[in-house]
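Researcher: Please generate the 3D structure of the following complex. Treat every line as part of one assembly.
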Amino acid sequence: MNISVMIGALPDLLGGVALTTELVALALLVGFVIALSTALARLSGVAVLRWLATAYVFTFRGTPLLVQIFLIYYGLSQFAFVRDSVAWVVLKQPFWCTLMALALNTGAYTAEVFRGGILSVPHNQIEAARAIGMSPVTAFRRIIWPLAIRQALPAYGNEMILMVKASSLASTVTLMDITGVAQTLAADTYMPIEIFTAAALVYLCLTYAMTQAIHFFERRLDVTRRRS
Amino acid sequence: MIREILTAAALALVCAQGAQAENIRIATEGAYPPFNLVDSSGKLKGFDVDIAKALCAEMKAHCTIVAQAWDGIIPGLKAGKYDAIIASMSITPARKKAVDFTAPYYVAGAALVGPAKSDITFTPAGLKGKTIGVQRATTYAALLKEKFPGAKIKLYDTVDNQNLDLKAGRLDGVVAQQVVMYEWLKKDGGKAFAFKGKPFLDPKYIGDGAGIAVNKGNTKLRDQFDAALKTIMANGTYAKINASYFPFSIAPK
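Model: Done. Output below.
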């Protein structure tokens, strides 16, 4: 193990951190919106919405992320009408293709996490909220969602950490994220063990920071502890 | 008495024939088209096989060409199953430790392929600011980085993915092995894409080319091959074989 090679690789790898962070942050943000809407659609009384949401979750949870990235990046570009359309401005860029795949993927998983959280809210709480005159929206915002997210946070945190690692697939479509930089360095130096160990340490730092953030929110949402 | 004379005559005849036509057994892989492959009737053919046959004709040797799986092709030579390997084997320092090589019999350069209508050229100035796809961890990637610093390099896991993105219009060009790209242009690239500029042949980046391998110390056979190779390259036989496979020369300089 050549420590100096590992240290020498760090500046380049940190250059990849910016792209990885950007991808993960945006994917989680967009994924959150997709997930919440999908979870609500799956629980709604409208059959079409329920059916669409179920189909979306089934498709994106049931196929590998790598295949999704390849289908969006290489697949869509095979069709001339896609290349000629306005969408090509976005689809031409590997960044947007990867972001789309990551957001749709995490959206599907998180939708199920949120749905589970919402279903765990005791019925009497909802009935009580309605009984004192809250509208369904207010009841959701003030009673159901706070209780649901508290239940869902550990699983949601897990999904967020998975997203950091899943973003490494961006390197397969030419993006220079942490893994992309590491692969190139490994090919240049012929020292894959040192380089990928250094890359793994960088990922560990990222996921550690994320774990701490999730813990912070878990503690904040833990009503029983705040009282004591 | 007559019987003895006859025996002596027969012996002389056999010996004379032996001196005339040597038996050489040559191995190829048979799974690396268009260089060596097995056709539908089970016969070995391809560029390597044609070169082997031409060399044997030149050496007036009686040759048998056999197919041998790639991972066992050098061990088979060492075990004496055959005398030489003509199978597009690149001359590398590691292989030189195990076998002796003749001079290269072909060199495939690094070629630039771009849209047919594009005016891109294979020069540092021509690639400046252009987005060029290349396979990661290949000599072609190193070549681009060092000799064409102005190019925006995009790295791909496979040549197939790199070519998909060329087709999709995300790239101004790709740099890869000349023959690989020729085959792609023939079956996939169609009329929309073409070679741009001259291929890059610096051995520092693309290696020494493919050579004929013989057992270590078998200088007699190696020298025979080298001499025959020189002759077929000088008398036009090589060029004829070359032309029947590729519209560009892969003859080593």
